[in-house]
Design a protein that fits this description.
The structure is a homodimer of 295-residue chains.
Chain A (H helix, E strand, L loop, with lengths): L1 E4 L7 H16 L4 E3 L6 H9 L3 E3 L10 E3 L6 H9 L4 E3 L3 H15 L3 E5 L5 H7 L6 E4 L10 E8 L5 H11 L3 E7 L4 H15 L3 E5 L5 H11 L4 E4 L15 E6 L5 H14 L21
Parallel strand pairs in A: 1-12, 2-3, 2-4, 4-5, 6-7, 6-8, 8-9, 10-11, 10-12
């Protein structure tokens, strides 16, 4: 009977960076806010609130306070509004997300009809689409592509999507356009977490995926895992039901790029408890079997 | 019992144009040559020879005579050599092929590793690759793509390939590169002939594909047809064997973009003869059931 964690589980570069920027800003200033959740993990957002970083949802709630821009970025118009109102901006947008925004702008300026593969209601996609001047199409997958011909199509992706969905989308567009430019903006952190999760799911008889229910990259890990084995997507250890593990021998654990280490450790220890191996509990994520930090 | 021809069968715009350029040049000058076959149809090349257009294979055989550049184009270096030798050039390169050469040059100048989907021994591809300054990869299909990562990949295709092969190739490259630019250079004449052939093959119990054995687009039509029904690729009527038609009711006929009308009519009449319906013979391609000229 074993519990193993997928390689590279947990915080990615962009999330670590955003948390660091926020924490440092909070030390010098006790009246800062984030506009929307800084990352898609309610537990981490709560912890930051306890450090004095208030989350507001609308520009009108900022009331002159220094404002952290969430890792997912915000709409161009919102940034312009903050600047016009002389708000101090602490930009924690993931650099890979910023790069995607630059590509969106560039493709749009070059006359491409820009296609974003992503969730049209996700803040990253909402922000991204604001950088496109001309025609823009947001699709969740190849199935959403209209029966229509285009001249020049520029394709980008929300940073946390699946590579095979991008492959299908690009393939669908080939007979529909004369020219296509594709920027593979699925970030490396997403790709390696997906690969490690896939690998572990194949050798497990149950998978536990830990991370925010609003986290796009965590939801993708769950989708990938589900194709191979029974999978539960949870946010915290208290959601775990002992019955899940009955008759299971190889439990796989994976976590999204915005899931804090302490949440993962709590989940691991709860699984261990359910399986009756309490002497195998750990204090740190690096002690969970299978863990390997992202290089 | 019926014999039907696929819509749009026979000469495409580029082939008609090349033949017209050659014939007009021959009227004013009885000492012109083509460097290589002007189109990939031995019967047409023979007919042009009877009009005084000699085919040579090497620059050294030109001996100062005005030279027709074949519809498939020639290498940049060959053109330069002709110019250096003050040879009068009559350029019958298909405009769509010339456009593909421009794309090859442009992608190469923009720092893309240029991938040509095509047959590395085909004159069009040999000519095309001469316009690429930097790294270049010629692949027949997605199976030929090496296990390697690239930064910027620019993909073009020989004008006569299959669109689904291009889709597979593009899809294979997505996880292998950061940026991709694809010019769909499969020409419209190719696509519509492939679609019409596919349509007819599905409703036939035998298909006859007429065209040069060296003709890439004709070979593609045969490949498409073969996936659905027994198919014979022939160059002329005299290759037909009466036995093929025994027990067949719906015969489909299709022809490549370089197959002359008179060759198609001869084939149709031979089939009609084999089936014992000699009073259904025709004089012109437009009288063959199912014929519809390309718009």
């Amino acid at each position: 009977m074993s519990v193993k964690i997928a390689k590279n589980s947990g915080f990615c570069f962009g999330v670590k960076r955003a948390i660091k920027i926020a924490s440092e800003a909070a030390q010098g200033n006790h009246k800062i806010v984030t506009l929307g959740p800084i990352i898609h993990n309610p537990q981490m957002v709560e912890k930051l609130a306890s450090e004095g970083i208030e989350r507001v949802n609308e520009v009108s709630e900022i009331q002159g306070r220094p404002t952290i821009i969430r890792s997912h970025g915000v709409k161009k118009e919102v940034l312009e509004e903050l600047i016009a109102n002389n708000i101090e901006i602490i930009n924690a947008t993931c650099p890979y997300v910023s790069k995607t925004q630059e590509y969106a702008k560039e493709l749009s300026e070059q006359g491409y009809m820009v296609v974003i593969m992503g969730d049209k209601n996700h803040p990253e996609v909402i922000a991204l689409s604001s950088y496109i001047e001309g025609e823009c199409l947001i699709v969740a997958s190849a199935e959403d592509v209209p029966e229509k011909k285009y001249q020049k199509v520029g394709i980008i992706s929300q940073t946390t999507r699946k590579i095979d969905d991008l492959q299908k989308l690009v393939s669908i567009f080939i007979p529909k356009c004369h020219e296509m430019r594709v920027m593979n903006t699925i970030c490396n952190a997403t790709s390696i977490r997906q690969e490690s999760t896939l690998e572990l799911a194949k050798e497990s008889d149950l998978m536990i995926v830990v991370g925010g229910r609003n986290s796009s990259n965590t939801k993708m890990l769950a989708r990938i895992s589900e194709d191979f084995v029974e999978t539960f997507h949870i946010e915290t250890a208290c959601e775990i039901d002992k019955k899940w593990f009955k008759g299971r021998n190889n439990i796989g654990l994976t976590a999204g790029a915005s899931t804090p280490d302490w949440v993962i450790v709590e989940v691991y220890n709860k699984i261990i408890e359910c399986m009756g191996n309490i002497n195998q509990k750990v204090d740190k994520i690096k002690d969970i079997p299978g863990f390997k930090e992202e290089e």
